[in-house]
Each structure stands twice: as structure tokens, then as C-alpha cells.
Amino acid sequence: MGKVVYEVDFDRTSECLWYFRKEWYKRWNGFQTVLIKVPKKVKSFKQLKEWLSQEFPEKELIELAKGLQQAWNKINNEFFGVTEQIMGKNWKYDNYFCYVQNAIVGHYHPLEENVIFVSSKRNSPSFIKNKLQETAEELVHQQYWYIWRETFRNIKFPWRNFRRWILSETITNIILSDKRLRKYFGNMKEGYKFIPKIKQQLMPLWIRRKSFRDFLLKAHKIRFKMQMK
After folding, report:
1. Is this structure's pTM higher than 0.85?
2. Which of 97, 104, 155, 176 would suit a FRET pair with 61, their CA atoms being 20 to 30 Å apart?
3. Residue 229 lies in a domain
4. Neighbouring C-beta atoms of residue 202, cutoff 10 Å
5. 102-156 pLDDT tens trace
6. Number of domains into which the chain is organized
7. Does residue 169 belong to any structural domain of this protein?
8. Which residues does 216 contact at the CB level (< 8 Å), separation at least 6?
């Protein structure tokens, strides 16, 4: 069973953010917006690390990480147990590292499958619950892509990655809407305009699914009209 470890680490956060800024988002038009605070004057990895340590007091972030860790520990076992049941697969790693920072919105690392980020931005009175939901969402994304790669390893996809991402966002929303998880995180926010429409298409498949893999195959087939075995 997995475990979440909240950390504040400017070295690791800088490494990941530098990768986001210089590599990954070259392929995603408009997605620079997730780097919500990094100024354009930051031109090197060294400058990014210096800026992070100056912009966000480490002491405050550490206190927040401690609070989130205490809150998450109360639900950790049920979260990992329920999601394993829903997705039909044991979690790949024993430890998942969640970096608390305020330079990027909630996000999962595209290369490091056990690394996620949550933002320290205090955006509502239900701050802790929102950050726990953010943690859960990014964790499920990592597990989703782990299962996705195994399920479709021998299938060529004739569409751009962006379309696959849209489907992943919708399915993650469906998973976290399970009543066993909703009691901890509240109702899932449909943060993207496309989610309600695609969710409506997928729910009949979700209700009748034989397994998560069965649902995943049929969801891709209905969305992209592909011939799959």
C-alpha cells in the first residue's frame, strides 16, 4: 500500500520546474500558464532555485507541509485501498513524494511517476480539504497513466497527446467522485469546461464496467472510434 510524504525541497522543486519550463511545455501550446509565478527574468536553473528560496519563506512552507501530512495520514490507508479496488491495480510505489510550493498549480511529474506537486496558495476557507483533494487528484493521475501504459502498450494512437490528456482528466474526476472518497475531499471540481460533456458520455460505461481496464478500453473506443480488442 502506498504512502504520501509531503516535503519542502527547493532543490527537487527547482529541478522539476526547470524541466517543465524548458522541455515539457514546448509541446503544449498555452500550458505555460501552469507556471503561475515564475518571472520571465529567471533564465537559468540557478536563478530559479534562488528565486524560489527568496520568494517563498521555507519556514511557512514547512509548517504547511506538516499540517497536510497530519491531515493526510488520517485518510492514507483508505485512499490507497479504495483506489486500488476501483482501478484494479496495486499502486506501483511504496512512497509518493508531494512537494509543497507556490510556483506551479497542482501537478504530477510526467517522468517521475511517484512525484507530484501541490500549491501552497490559500484560495478558500476549506484550504486543507482543497489541498487534500489536489493531492488525491495528482496521485490518481500518476496511477492512471501507469495503468494506461500497460493497457495500450501495443496500440498505436492516431491522435495528439492533448486528446488523451482530456480523457485522463475526465476519468480521474469520475474515480474521485466515488462516495467512499467524496466524504474526505468533497465534490470534485470540474475544473475544465470539457469534463461535464465527456463525463456524461462515459458514465453509462462506468456504471456497466466489468473492470477498470474494460472501462478504459471502451472509453477510448467510444471517444475515438478505434478498433480495439
Report:
1. yes
2. 176
3. no
4. 21
5. 777 788 887 899 999 998 876 555 788 889 999 999 999 999 999 999 998 877 6
6. 1
7. yes
8. 147, 148, 151, 171
